Structure formats: C-alpha cells, structure tokens
TrEMBL record:
SMART domains named in the record: Transket_pyr
Enzyme category, top tier: oxidoreductase
NCBIfam families: 2oxo_dh_E1, PRK09404.1, PRK12270.1
Name the record gives this protein: oxoglutarate dehydrogenase (succinyl-transferring)
Length: 941
C-alpha cells in the first residue's frame, strides 16, 4: 500500500486512538463475511497474509507488522487500560491474535477433539490451535482480552480462562464443524448454542437416568440375543449403544416441538435393537423370527434385519407416529425412499416447511462416504420438488467398513461426513462413550433442522464389538483394534460408573434397572415405556387391498366432457407470450379439442391428466425434462418468453381440482426414482410418475427396480402404484437411448408384481394412465413409451376412442382383411407395428394379419384366446416380430406366453435382429438395413 494511502487511512481511522476493540470487531466480522464491512476496511484486511489452510485468517506476527507500519505513519498507538487483574496492557496486535485464536478453534478445534472411544485415531498436529503459533504464551494467561462474539456470556476474559474454555468447547467429546457454512446467521446461531454452554449443558437427574436406561436396553438386548441365539446374524449395535438414547431423545425433542411423524431409514447395524428398544416391537416376535417361525401368508418375506415397523411414541407434545422403512442390503438406497415417504406425508398434511414430519437417516461410516446415492440425496435436499425441511443424518461410525479400517482405503477425506459439506450442512462429531454429549448434539441438531430447514449430520464415533456379523472373526483383519475393544468397558458400564461417582444413582439402582430390563425380555412384552398403539397417523390403505388385475375400471367419459376438459387444458392467460413452436402446438390442440382433428400423443396424455385432476385425483410427475417432455411433446409447463415465468394449464382445470405437480428433477435416476417409490408407498391416492429422459437411463436406478419395485410387495407386503415412463424405440440413434431394456423388466415379472405395457396409440396411453389411477389396485406400471410415435401420422386417436373408457390389452387387426384368407399372423408390440403396417399396405398383402400386444405382463391370455378362437384358429404360421436383438426385448422372457396363445399345431418363429451384445448398432445405414430385413422377414411367407 502506498504511504500516502496508508497515512490517509490512519488519520481517518479509529486506530489513531486506543480503540482496538473496534478494529477487532470489524476484523472478526470480516472473517465471518468479508462483505459485512465497508470497502476501505475490506481492502485493508484483504491485504493481510493468509494462514495455512484456512481462508480469511492471518498470521499474527505479520498482522502485527502491518499494523505497526500503519501506526508509524500517525500518532503513537495508545493501548486501552487493562481490565481485571491489571497484570499487563493489551496491545493492539495481541488483541487481534486472540480473536484469531478464537476463530482457529471454531474452524479447526474438531481436529483435536477427543472423539474416538478407543483412542486409536492419530490426529495430525494443528498448529493453528497452539498459542505459540499466534505468538501468545502462558505468560499472557493473566491478561484480559476482549473476546468479541465468543458467546460465553461476557465481553472479556483472561487468556488462561479463554484457552481452557475454547478447549472445553471445541476439543472435548464434541467436534463441531460449521465454519464452512457461508450463511452468517446460521454460524452465529450455532456459535451461541455451542459456546454459551461450552458444549456441555447441565442436565437433570431424570435425563441422566433416562440415558442410562437407554444404554442398559441397548446392551441388554444384544447380550440377550447373543446368549439365546449364539452365532446368529444380528449385526450387533454393541459399541454404538448411544444410538438408542440418541434416537429416543431425538424423537422426544421433535415431538415436544410439534413433529407428528418420524420416518427412519437405516441399514443393518443396530436395526434389531432399534426395532425393539425404540419402536417397541414385541421381543417375543423377534425371538420367533430368530427361531425360524414365520407367517406363511406374508409372501416371500425377508431377513429380519431388513424389516420395517410402525408404532406410536408418546412425547410431551403428543404422540408421534414412527415408521422404520423396509430396506434391502443396498445400504444407502433407503435414504431417498425415506425422503419420498416424508414428502408424501407432508403433502397429505398440507405442511410446506417440514415441521410436522421428520426424516432420520442412519448411515454407516464407509457407506456414507462410499455410495453415490448419498451425494444424490444431499443434492436433492433443497431442490423444489424434493425438499422435506431437512433430514437429520446420523452416522454409526464404527471405524470399520466390513473388514477395512484404513482410512486411505475407505475414503479420500479426513472424515466420512465430508460429503455433507457440499450442502453446507453442520457436522457434529461426538464420542459415543459420552452419552451426555450425544444428547446435547442430538437436541442441537434437531433445533438447527427445525429453524433452518436444512440437513444436519451427527457423526457418532464408536466401535464394533464383534465382526461385520457375529460369525466373523475380526482379529484376522483388525488385530490391534480388537485387542483394545476386548479390554474396553461397554458404554452402559462407563456411564453407570460416572453417575454413581457423582452421586446421581447408586449401584443398587443400576442393578435393578438391568434386572428389570432382562425380566421384560424374558416376559416377551414391549420394553419401550413410550410405545403407544397406532392411531390415525397413517393413510388408510384398506380400499386398495385384496384387488387383482380383474379389478373393475370404469373410465368412460362423454365426448362433450372430453371437449370441455380439452378446452380447459388449452387455456393460456391473455397476453401470455409463448415460444413460436409451442404456440403452434397449442393452436393445434385447440383444433383437436373441438373435434376437428385427431388427437396426437401429447394431447391425449395431457387430457388424461386433466380428466383425473378434474375428479380430485392428485398427480405428481418428476423427471429430468418432464415439464416440456424430452421429445418436445408434452408442454404441460409453459414458459413466458418475456419474463421466464412458468404456467401450468393443468393446474387451472377448475377451482376444486386435484393437485397437479410436475418437476424437472435433479440429474439423477437412482435417488429420484427411489424418492418417488417412497412417495408412492406412502400416498396411494396420488398418481405418481417418474419419467426417464431416455428409457435406458433407468439403468442408473436398477437397484431401485430390482430391490423395491419388482419385489417390495413379495418381500415386505408394500403396495406401490408408481408409474415409470421409459422412452423406447429403434430410430437409428445408436446403442444408447434406443432400448429401455424391456427384457430386464420382463425377466423380473412374477406373482403379478407389476404391469408392463407398450401402448401404441394416444387413446391407449389415455386409458392406461386413467386405469392406473382409478382402478383400486396399487402395483407398479412399467411403460415402454414412444419417441417417433409421438408425431407419427398414423399414431392418432379420435375423441370417441378416448371416450369409450377401455384400455385394450390386445389390439386385433385394424384393416379390412378377410380372416379366412389369413395364412400368417404376426404378433408384435410398440413402434415396429407401424413399420409392419406400412410395408404390408405397400405390398398390398391380405394374407398376413398383425396383432398388437399392448400389455406384455400380466399377459392377456383370455383376450388373446378370444381373438384367436374367433378369427385365426385355422392359422398355423405365427411370428413374433420385434425390433430388439433376439436376446433382448420380449422374445426370450415372453416366448412361453406366445406359444400358449397360438392354436394347437401352430408353429411360432422369430423375426427380428440377431442376438447382440449391444442394444443397437451405431450406424444409421446398418440400422435401416436391419429394420427392413426384420420387417420383410415377418411379412414374407
């Protein structure tokens, strides 16, 4: 800085006096938010050197030199009178260093916190936390300094007191990470809550006894199971016992502040303990499961540590409904399912801020760092279509991932929770052997979530007393850790000893609590005092139970009603400037609405939605381009060309209509599909739709398809009406985006678990969507939706076809062909039908009939039999034609259905592409040759 500039600044600044505190406050504000100070000050502070690894902090010796240079240009710097002991004057540069020290602890105190119960963590030296690094020493301990915004309840402290306070607050059993948050209000709020009690508030004796009872329950449950069922897998919680009082405290605190429902997602570790000791599952039922007893009416079933459960839990604010989500072994995949379930419950309650329903997700330390769906759910957490008011995320950090404990093998970051910093979530690392610290961060996390409606993370640092499961031998891979664990007392014992030492409880009371819990387990009754029978918290599923595919569907609408709805869905506010192509599309829709032009795909689909919301049905659709439609066909969401404002005509059909929501989702398949699955399992009255940008994008959500959609009812009895729209068809666009992998869905078909449909006309998609919403059966609908058919001149329908109210599982020959002359019948699904129809008409063939199978599963045997017996029982030559390679598509998985459909003595052959490793070729010329060949093969006798 030029001397003249420095002198001008000095002459006009408060530093010319002894007002160091003023500068200190400014500098501290600058550290929190550079834009919070005036430009002149910011320019000065910007030029100060930066500290190692921490932005916006300065090396104090260099700060001192800078300020001394400034002082040399003006009057001699005066020092304020020393406060308190009078043992020394406070120099300006040391005052700044003290503020820097406070800031260093806020930033990096967690790196020296006592977090590991086993004492195995080797923390690197953090020079920022050393007095000498700030040119301070114990000789300065008696000097009193202004502590700025340090929320200890006083403006100044001696350095000695401050140093002890900082270590108690930031380097005890809690390591708080929050300085990465850019919002000053959030940081100030957290500082106030943490620093005002030095991270260790006073708690009552009743709370202490409640914590101890939770630890006794956690420990007692595991020991009981270990003795009664030795060697059986239970994925013990031992070592992470504090999870039980943590969850009970979290639910109690949430219910006290207005929460009505809690949805919990967790993998295996500690799940059985949570089921019994938090949700109140009857221990005798669990013991029966360990003994191999089961109810044969419950379907295929699942292992006990995948099971869900629901109950009510009494809190001072009223009963809270608890739901532990079912989940498979794919660990983190349950988290977006939980979020979707919570969103559905919030929508049902009309709660927009998330205050009435709380999501809690429980993670493993290796899983939260290692599985990509975690990033996807963090990314969704504040997105418009997926926010739930914040999720409380708890990490059971037992420091081992299966058999891997070396950090460099499990992640590339210091903490497993660093992924949460992408959304600036506060992270509270806490030593699980200090249950009072655990309770403090639990309440703090809940209050933060309620106030700021954002995610918050608790890293419960603990250990795993046994191997990955109770049959494993952990000493084989972690010998040093398990030598230490073997000698380490259990959390219940540590805390009981602490309470007896301080006089809060005596040994006799402890033994009585232990024996009472053991007796309750022997009795087999519920061991959770707060358990209550479920009341009205859950949606009523009874209207959707016990129905099969033959459930009646009355979807008929008059042509006049359809015209009325069509006009309503085409209304755009006066003067609303549309993009030119969209304007023409809506003009065409108005002609269709009048009945003067056949309806195309987009018109019929939107009309289905209009007809449903008109009767009060709610619709939710998400996908990466769902408002417009990837192929420019839907345009359910319009965009003002001058202001960018969005308008959805489907939200304005009539005043008291159902809710219509369409969200262009985050760029995710796995998490978004899982979210929608969770939504559909919690809200049967809403038509819930997930649309893939291209059908093969569903590949990224294969875990959701395999573990939830196809088998959720068989394993867990979970009904779900989720609809997947998967664009599918061979238009010569190469290996990607041609195939939605129909064969994968057909391979998973069994037990009438879902519907797989390939509609080929606008009327068919209209009736298919209405049937899915109106028919009182909730099972997934998998749709191979079209691309080129969206504007195909033959793929149109009349209003009369829409009014008839029937989805045709099979569509017979539509041309005027004499059935008696037919020598070959070609069966097909989807777009290839139009290629076959066009070629047959060009060839003027009248001896080949074409039948479309619009629902491949459950296969429409009765409808096929009716057509065959009435018209084609004389035909011996039958062909299945498909665009997909022979090892893909419907041929292999549905061939037995085709054989069952043809007359006795008939012959079935295949017409299509040869088997291939890739879904499609990459060259348009080769594609055209293949397409022509398979069509010719199907039609040529």
């Amino acid at each position: 800085m030029q001397q003249s500039v420095m002198k001008a600044w000095w002459d006009s600044s408060h530093m010319a006096g002894g007002n160091a505190a003023y500068v200190e406050e400014l500098y501290e504000a600058y550290l929190d938010d550079p834009n919070s100070v005036e430009d002149t000050w910011r320019d000065i502070f910007d030029k100060l050197p930066k500290l190692d690894g921490v932005a916006l902090e300065a090396n104090h010796s260099q700060i001192r030199d800078e300020f001394r240079k400034m002082a040399a240009l003006g009057p001699a710097a005066r020092v304020p009178a020393a406060a308190a002991s009078g043992s020394g004057a406070v120099s300006d540069d040391k005052q700044v260093k003290v503020l820097q020290l406070i800031n260093a602890y806020r930033f990096r105190g967690h790196q020296h916190a006592n977090l590991d119960p086993l004492g195995l963590w080797k923390q690197a030296r953090v020079r920022d936390l050393e007095l000498s690094h700030h040119t301070l020493s114990e000789r300065d301990f008696d000097t009193v300094y202004n502590v700025g915004s340090y929320a200890i309840g006083q403006d100044s402290m001696s350095l000695g007191e401050l140093y002890k306070s900082l270590n108690r607050t930031y380097c005890g059993s809690i390591g708080a990470e929050y300085m990465h948050i850019t919002d000053t209000e959030q940081k100030r709020w957290l500082q106030q809550r943490i620093e005002s009690v030095q991270a260790k508030p006073e708690i009552s004796r009743d709370e202490k006894v409640s914590i101890l009872k939770g630890l006794i329950a956690a420990d007692g449950m595991e020991k009981y199971l270990g003795a009664k069922f030795p060697g059986a897998k239970r994925f013990s919680l031992e070592g992470g016992d504090s999870l039980i009082p943590m969850l009970k405290g979290l639910i109690t605190h949430a219910g006290t502040h207005g929460t009505k429902e809690v949805v919990i997602g967790m993998a295996h570790r500690g799940r059985l303990n949570v089921l019994v000791n938090v949700l109140g599952k009857n221990p005798s039922v669990l013991f029966d499961e360990f003994s191999g007893k089961h109810d044969e009416s419950l379907g295929a079933g699942d292992v006990k540590y995948h099971a869900g459960y629901s109950s009510d839990f009494a809190t001072p604010g009223g009963n809270v409904h608890l739901a532990l989500a079912f989940n498979p072994s794919h660990l983190e995949i349950v988290n977006p399912v939980v979020m979707g379930s919570v969103r559905a419950r919030l929508d049902r309650r009309g709660c927009e801020d998330g205050s009435t329903v709380l999501p809690i997700t429980i993670h493993g330390d290796s899983a939260i760092a290692g599985q990509g769906v975690v990033q996807e759910t963090f990314n969704m957490s504040q997105a418009r279509g997926f926010k739930v008011g914040g999720t409380v995320r708890i990490v059971i950090n037992n420091q081992v991932g299966f058999t891997t404990s070396k950090i460099e093998d499990t992640r590339s970051t210091q903490y497993c929770t660093d992924i949460a910093k992408m959304v600036q979530a506060p992270i509270f690392h806490v030593n699980a052997d200090d249950p009072e610290a655990v309770l403090f961060v639990t309440k703090l996390a809940m209050d933060y979530r309620n106030k700021f409606k954002r995610d918050v993370v608790i890293d419960l640092v603990c250990y795993r007393r046994h191997g990955h499961n109770e049959a494993d031998e952990p000493n084989a891979t972690q010998p040093l850790m398990y030598q230490k664990i073997k000698k380490h007392p259990v959390p219940r014992q540590i805390y009981a000893d602490q309470l007896t030492a301080e006089g809060s409880i005596d040994d006799h009371e402890v033994e009585k609590l232990i024996s009472d819990y053991r007796a309750a387990l022997d009795h087999g009754a519920c061991v959770v005092d707060e358990w209550r029978p479920m009341t009205e918290h859950s949606v009523d599923w009874s209207p959707y139970l016990g129905h099969d595919w033959t459930a009646p569907y009355d979807g008929a609408l008059s042509v006049d009603k359809l015209k009325e709805l069509a006009r309503a869905m085409c209304r755009v506010p006066d003067g609303y400037p549309l993009q030119s192509r969209v304007k023409k599309l809506y003009a065409d829709r108005e002609v269709m609405a009048a009945g003067d032009k056949n309806l195309d795909w987009g018109m019929a689909e939107n009309l289905a939605y209009a007809s449903l919301v008109d009767t009060g049905v709610n619709i939710r659709m998400t996908g990466q381009d769902s408002g417009r439609g990837t192929f420019f066909h839907r345009h359910a969401v319009l965009h003002n060309q001058k202001t960018g404002e969005a308008y959805m005509p489907l939200q304005h059909i009539k005043d008291d209509q159902g809710k219509m929501e369409i969200y262009d989702s985050v760029l995710s398949e796995e998490a978004v599909m899982a979210f929608e699955f969770g939504y559909a399992t919690a809200e049967p009255r809403t038509l819930t739709i997930w649309e893939a940008q291209f059908g093969d994008f569903a590949n990224g959500a294969q875990v959701v398809i395999d573990q939830f959609l196809s088998s959720g009812e068989a394993k867990w009895g979970r009904l779900c009406g989720l609809t997947l729209l998967l664009p599918h068809g061979y238009e010569g666009q190469g290996p990607e985006h041609s195939s939605a992998r129909l064969e994968r869905f057909l391979q998973l078909c069994a037990d009438h678990n879902w519907q797989v449909c390939v509609p080929s006309t606008p009327a068919q998609v209209f009736h298919m969507l209405r049937r899915q919403a109106i028919r009182p059966m909730r099972r997934p609908l998998i749709v191979m939706s079209p691309k080129s058919l969206l504007r195909h001149p033959l793929a149109t329908s009349t209003l009369e076809e829409l009014s008839e109210g029937v989805f045709h599982n099979v569509i017979d020959e539509i041309d005027d062909i004499d059935a008696a002359k037919v020598k070959r019948v070609v069966m097909c699904s989807g777009k290839v039908y139009y290629d076959l129809l066009d070629q047959r008409r060009k060839d003027e063939r009248d001896d080949v009939a074409i039948i479309r199978i619009e629902q491949l599963y459950p296969f429409p045997h009765d409808e096929m039999a009716a057509i065959v017996q009435s018209k084609y029982k004389h035909v011996k030559d039958w062909v299945w034609c498909q665009e997909e390679p022979q090892n893909q598509g419907a041929w292999y998985c549905s061939q037995h259905h085709f054989w069952a459909s043809i007359p006795e003595g008939g012959k079935l052959t295949y017409a299509g592409r040869a088997a291939a490793a890739s879904p499609a070729v990459g060259y348009i010329s080769v594609h055209n040759q293949q397409q022509k060949a398979l069509v010719d093969d199907a039609l040529t006798l």
